[in-house]
Each structure stands twice: as C-alpha cells, then as structure tokens.
Prior knowledge:
By secondary structure, this protein is of the alpha+beta class. It has two domains: about 1-100, 2-Layer Sandwich (Alpha-Beta Plaits), CATH 3.30.70; about 110-160, Roll (SH3 type barrels). It is built from five helices and nine strands. Strand 2 (about 50-55) and strand 3 form a beta hairpin. The termini are far apart. The mean pLDDT is about 90. The structure holds zinc ion.
Amino acid sequence: MADREGEKMLVRKIEEGTVIDHIPDWKSDTVAKVLRLDKLARMQADVSVAILQNVESKTLERKDVIKIDRWHVDEGDADILSLIFPNITVNYIDDWKVSKYKARVPDTIEGRIRCPELLCISNAEREPVAPRFSTVKKERMLQCRYCDTLLGFDSVPDQVRT
Length: 162
Ligand SMILES: [Zn+2]
C-alpha cells in the first residue's frame, strides 16, 4: 500500500469531516470553488482544510484530494461536483468511520449556477428570479428553465455562484 503511505505522510486521518477523493490532478481549485471553501473562513473558526495535489492513487495515476476537518460538505454541492468530475468520491467521516456519499446527477439545480445568457430573467438586475436548470444527462448539459440556454457540465465551474 505504498500509494496510501504517501498520502498519510502528508496528512493525518480525520475524526470528523469530509474527504473528497479522486479529484483529477491539479483540479482541486475547481472543487474548492464549487464548494465555496473560502467562505469557511467566515463560517466556522475550527475548520481545517488540507488540499493535496498530484498525489499517487492506487492506479498509479495522479489525483488531488481535499480533506476538511470538522465540516460536512453539502450533499447538493457534492452532486454538482459529480456532474463536473464523474469519478470524484465524497466521503463523510463521523467518529473515524468513513461513509461514502452516493452522489447523483440531479434532475434540477436551483440557485447555485448562473445562466450564461446575460439577458436571461435570472440575470436581471432588478428583481431577478433564482436560476433554475434541468439536466440533460445524455448530453452532459444543463438547460435553463427560463431561456433554454444550454450549459455543458464542464462549464459549470465558470458559472457557479460564489
Ligand atoms: Zn437563462
């Protein structure tokens, strides 16, 4: 288990929190953005975040890992991550026990992602409505419920509201 050893050397196990594993190498910044990890600084003082980049995985491919001590990632955010990175795994840790969250591609996403169409009612300066998308799973696209504009899953990080 040499691969695991390398990871252990970098950061200890956590008792309580979230481990986001199998992030494609060097993509942890995107994950941090979707999860709005910068907001943790203001939300909870006792949260620690370890971001590991380009570590060896079991398959000897490289990956990024994010460990968040004392904070559980929102399940809706985990689902959005699974759109962008289908192979990502989100593990919740409680009392040292690991439970893998089964991320699912949601049918609709509300509020978290901006419509790329600037003229969309969800982008209106006055009285904007909350953005709503339906997922078109086969095409790996989101479709705006108001203006039908399509957004590829890969472009979600650019449109995520922070
Ligand atoms: Zn729209």
